[in-house]
């Protein structure tokens, strides 16, 4: 009887990467990020911001919180940091406005929520989650999304809250040329129960026109999560990420071709997208805690934190 009991206990020990492996990976945007053009002081600010985001999400995971809670917590920190192109740091449209997009997805149920083109919601990722959990829809846009967020009791701010001098100056520079700058923030996580989640938030492209919406709020393009494959959050030139359904393509390579997270993410970012000059990167994570952070630009703000609780951040190609 004793031997039988020991055998049964051995059978139910969780596999590595499920209940034993909470993991959080974040990004703060990809693009032209050169070490030589950034002061040590500014680089430290970026690294500190990424670490703060990682610690916020990790604290959720450590106390047994869900991957959804961790993703939302990590992204809210980045949305409140004016250095990153989301929330407070959102870039300006051609008309001098800040229009915000966000999405979130639950890998356990494949429930999802998204908002686009909003101008008064302080934390768009929280509004996206409200759409997922407190409505029958997946996406809301513009005034309708703002009215919904107001009725849900989310924090509403005057549009002037999003005004920052360095983003305003960036718009003035862009108005004299056609080179568009992009940036996004995002997070993917797996919790102690082995459930995945992904979220993405952005101010879009500097100088964007006519209500343009990129990939960040598009499920399958900028955000995707499925416990049977991976959680993905993307950053880059959104038009390419939409047309090549980047996030869901990575998930499909993992699920149906049995590729590793690293191999699948590299295939899409450094082969498929690069071949058509689509710039950007992704963070991708599976339920066992394996993750990848490939990008085909000069740099990508990114970081990760695992069970040891040590935040690790990177910016350039190191």
Description:
The chain has 318 residues and is of the alpha+beta class. The chain has one domain (15-314): Glutamine Phosphoribosylpyrophosphate, subunit 1, domain 1 (4-Layer Sandwich). It is 35% helix and 21% strand. The protein contains nine helices and twelve strands. The chain has helices at residues 2-11, 40-62, 67-79, 124-134, 142-151, 165-174, 238-243, 246-257, 261-275, and strands at 23-31, 100-106, 112-118, 139-141, 185-190, 196-202, 223-225, 231-236, 280-285, 291-292, 299-305, 312-314. A hairpin with a 6-residue loop joins strand 11 and strand 12. Helix 2 (40-62) packs antiparallel against helix 3 (67-79) and helix 8 (246-257) packs across helix 9 (261-275). The protein is globular, with a radius of gyration of 19 Å. The termini are far apart.
Provide a concise account of the structure shown.
This protein has 318 residues and is an alpha+beta fold. It is built from nine helices and twelve strands. It has one domain (15-314): 4-Layer Sandwich (Glutamine Phosphoribosylpyrophosphate, subunit 1, domain 1), CATH 3.60.20.
Keywords:
9 helices, disordered N terminus, alpha+beta, four-stranded antiparallel β-sheet, eight-stranded mixed β-sheet, 318 residues, 12 strands, Glutamine Phosphoribosylpyrophosphate, subunit 1, domain 1
